[in-house]
Amino acid sequence: MDLDARPYRAFIAVADTGSFSRAAEVLHVSQPALSAQIKEFERRLGFALFARSSRTVALTPEGRLFIDRARRLVTETDWANNAAREIRLNQLRIGAAHFTGDIAERNAVIDSFRHDEPDVPLRVLRRSPPQLHDDLDRGDIDVALLLDFAEDERGGIDARGAIGWILAERPLALWIPVTHPLAHADGPVTAEALRDMPVGMIDRSHGVGVAEGVGRVLLQSGATLRSLPEGDARSVARQCAQLGWCAIDLGWFGDSGGGAMQSHKVEGWTAVTRLIALARPGDRRDGARRFIDRLGPATGHG
Predict the structure, then answer these.
(1) Which tens digits make up the pLDDT trace of 49-65?
(2) What's the half-sphere exposure (Cβ side, CA atoms, 13 Å) at 59?
(3) Are 261 and 178 in contact (CB under 8 A)?
(4) Among 53, 56, 138, 301, which has the highest number of CB atoms less than 10 A from its own CB?
């Protein structure tokens, strides 16, 4: 198996330079060796690639038809060789939910590993939560970083057959506009105060479990859930600031309402959202094993 695609590279070099001698210089081989390689390649293909004369080298009609396929094969060979090199070097592939780039604890886990283990090539892939679970199942990533919901801090992890670690957690809270009556109420906000009140609701961009769990908490408080054009937590808070509505606060993202929103705890709410790491059980490459060892004992599985 030719992992370097040498005859294809030789063909492309001659086609691009229009000269066997210049192509030989580019490829750092002798001209006779290059000519012999092209002749053998043509023999194996069953057709001539070049029409040769004493002064010019031109592609034959067959060569013109074949050149684009040869370029694609060389590109794919380069990709395959890069993938093989990354595997040899124990590359660590971390899949991270796209919204986690703003979470300090997520960045600290990745940055500290990169600092302490510089010999492990690290690649971070941004994905949606459903894609992270699929990629983990297929083995396309070694570790997934995403958010999880629990009714209280003692709740288990929805690991879906994987092994899980809780990296950090935040209590569920409420963004309240500074002009809203609840923002100036005496004492903490009570769940009863939300009855029949419109509250901006997140969509599934942070994960199905998170969206469904948050929805249950709001419905149990009697709130009226309001969907918005953009359903991620930051956008919901920004839009609700404009509308004068309260919005759910997952605890991970700052005020995106330009100072128009305040985060308040709600009396009686025990739910939390958690930054978690997931990995498949079983054998791992060295880079993945070293990263997972730093996470400590797993806190959930299955």
Answers:
(1) 999 877 788 999 999 99
(2) 15
(3) yes
(4) 301
